[in-house]
Amino acid sequence: MITITVAPYDPLWRLEFEKIRAELAAALGDDARIEHVGSTSVPDLAAKPTIDIDVVIAAGEFRATREKLEGIGYTHRGDYGIRGREAFHYDGKRHLMRHNLYVCASDSSELARHLALRDWLRAHDDDRDEYARVKTEGARLYPHDIDAYIAHKQAFILGIYRKVGVPCFAPKSYDGNEHFMSIALAFARRTADYGETPVGAVVVSPDGKILGHGHNRREGLRDIASHAEIEAMRNAANAVGDWRLTDCSLYVTLEPCPMCAGAIIAARVSRVFYGARDENGGAVSGNLNMFVEFGGGTEVTGGVLADECGAVLSEFFRGMRNPV
User: Fold this and answer.
1) Which of 16, 178, 229, 315 does the annotation list as catalytic?
2) Which pTM does this prediction carry?
3) Alpha carbon 75 to chain centroid distance?
4) Rounded to the nearest 5 degrees, what angle is found at the Cα of 82, between the Cα atoms of 55 and 127?
5) Could you write out the DSSP letters of every residue in 31-46?
6) Residue whose C-alpha is closest to residue 124's, from 165, 160, 168, 166
7) 296-313, pLDDT tens digit by residue?
8) Is 279 a catalytic residue?
9) What is the DSSP letter of 257?
């Protein structure tokens, strides 16, 4: 079982990054752009003791970069649904501090977000300290649940993106529905890590607290019912001690299927917001709208961050058809 630990800032983290950077530069070339990002790159910020690194490349350089990284023990794992950012894993390397390695296109919006968050926190002590508080609180509340920990941080991170002026998950005006859908999107993106279709969901209380979250786990659990909505509602029901989720809202990145629609109705969820349409298997936009026929008053709104939700799915299936 993974235990999430947020540690006080350690000046040695900078030195550990330099050790990793030197090894990467030896393979990629001394002029390679290697950025230290993430919380360990911000002095005096508490962080999980894992170094995050972005290798920045120009268009057309990925294949050569991948081959060089594979030559020193890294394995390409794909973009996990995030365009312009390719993840690499490794085994061994015990001489180096634990790290996450990504290769990012120089014009990648994900790279822009990484650098914007890092640079803002380096320059604004109050926000740095508040972020440390939020992360420490998240680790205390969810010591063994990385998805819940990430969701706990998400509102703060999105707030910084808005201050800086970089796109979050949508270049639209911010509102509450987009906020919660963006958190569901964060879970959808992580779902691809497990080889599952990237769909994420959260259940939100009437006062705006996330009661439960979920992502597809059907393949991993070999359970037909383990869709994102079902997982989120199970977690929410456990949190409130009641299967009834009256007055709650559910946000899901893909239009619910008939099975999930039936469960949502049975759980008495008051409002459903979904992102991308499911023209083949959806229970809302097809010939039969289950929420109209059987919903008992459940309000349904579609199209929240629809382009972003659809893009995550498209990238995932494109990667399956055309592996790098």
Assistant:
1) 229
2) 0.62
3) 21
4) 75
5) T-EEEEESGGGSTT--
6) 160
7) 688 999 999 899 999 989
8) no
9) P
